Amino acid sequence: MENASAVVAASQLVLLILIAGIAGCAQGHLLSQPALELRIQAQEQLISQHNDSAYVQRLMRLSKSAEMRNYMQPELQPCDNFYDYSCGNWAKINPANTANPRETNYEQLLLKGYHHKQQRLLQRSADAAIDAEAVLKLKEFYASCLHYRETPLPVYRQQLLEIVAEFGHMPALALPGQQWPADEFDWVATVARIKRKYGLDIMLRLQVTPAAIYVGQPQQIRPQPNRLGRAASIREWLIWNLGVERELAETTSLEITNMEDLVARYMRDIPVGVLARPRTAKELDELYLPVYNLTKYVELVLDRPLNPNDTLFEHVPSYQAHLLDFVASVSPQMHANYIFYSLLEHFSYEWAGSVVDHCMSKARRLFPELLDNMVLREYGDAATLSDIEAVWQQIKRSFRDMLESDTADWLPLGPRSQLLDQINATRLLVNGHADVNFTQTYEGLQLKPRDYLHNLRAVLSHDSLKTKMSAAPLTAPSYDAVEKRVLLPVALLQPNYLWSRYYPRALRYGSLGTLLAHELAHSIEDVSHWDHSSMMAYRKRWACFKEQYGRLRLNGEYLPKSDLQAENIADNLAVQVSYHAYSKYLQELAPSALSSEQLPQMAQSPRQLFFLSYAQFWCNDSQERFRDRIALLVSYTPNALRVLGALSNLEAFQRDFACSGGSPMNSSPKCQLYGLSMD
Length: 679
Fold this sequence. Notes:
four-stranded mixed sheet, zinc, Endothelin-converting enzyme homolog, hydrolase, metal-binding
């Protein structure tokens, strides 16, 4: 009976995916069709847990084939523009809108599937006989959140005012005839006390690790493409939730929006620990006093003086230098309103929309590690983890092959040995926090039934020096430079997205393999300790990438030349190394099993499927105004050009698709860092 259910589910899944493609072209996109999407996920879940019959395997492969063909525009020539060939229909199925989503991409599909799995786990009834104590507290927090709209508005407004009063006075809340005490406002002390009480990073960040203290830029926020719309939203929030008069709310919202733009303008998306500069307290004082006191911020958050044994690092110094330029130019009132609004945003209630969506978002933001651990325990079976570890080891082996090959002989033995040591030392960790004792972590957390705001404040106050993570879990691996490890998000354990036991290994190496290889490439990008001749040889190859990517065009516009080539170089290394690993796999595969490396109703060879899988992970669409605005603010290469740039440098791609010399995907010169061809 169980096998029969799985067979029926597989048959339905193929039909649903075909319907998704048709419906997407006709009336919107899969990302905005939750009912259809959840039905697909329900079938996938049933199939993934059971049954390996040949019939079910074929149906699952048919469903993946249907998905990949839906995104393609096969009438185009792959050697002219491989991104358009691979993703030409993505925008028809998943179009970006003027409102939301303003951008669509494959990572969103992963994220929505992952969110649904988290929601299913959290909505299971609490059971003290089964659930760990920490899980019971998380479920109690979530249950209290579901009732937040029952709070009368006057009670909620008074609670917000009490939160403001913990840290001073918000100018927009001054009573008529009451003068706001500007002389008493100290923005550094205010954000430090907020950080110490609730763990919130406003304008500055403090992150404490066992090895060091990092101070500097908070998590990157991006300027709002629609500033007037953002200001209108803030205005209505101030009126409704705080009772601010409309005229004052209008001017205050514009000031807050301007401040947001100023703060975000020079932020960079750099993980803590990467490119951080060691500092002493004296050095920080010399850099930023008398405009603002960064040492004071650290000491107020820690509630103790810095001592000589503290290892202090400055995170993104360019951001702190930017603060010097504009902090003195804005009024204390504008500064204070921005800080207090940023604080209250974390306690904001959504009075419209889905209560479940709001509460799930809060749970993800405040309990990210525990939720990831719940998903890991539910879906992280031994076979899945073993498969991923095998890919990781093959990627590492391919990196070693590359560095030990003759094509990397421009690099002397000493630096090359250092790179090999770094590759060998870097490990993979599925970021499900299996080593965390969550019972101990949440031991002192006291919650109250149905009292959501109390519970929200309690959770934020609990372990407040621990930096709160983003609301959205990562959907791509990341490199932890401090611990020398690549972190694999639990979201990537989901079957039947990037990989599956039913799919050709080509898809696994083309997507998951290149993602892992990209982060491993970041582990060897620090060349600051190399000798002069090695550095000059490296700079020559780096300059090739700068010139090449500056010649790429998207929507008729050239990509601006940039000195930030680390991501582009990592892309090139990733696809080269993962392709090499896949080639090794094919060489070891029995000839009788080669047919398993193709998909039904697709003429692509196994090696061509590798490249198609790689390109389709980067399929995206963005609303034109949003795209143009973001292009001015970020330094990353657009997805389409990431695909075109990396593959045009790879001779194996040109061979597998028979791209003639001079075709757009086989242009010269080609840029390589450590090797030209390894297969």
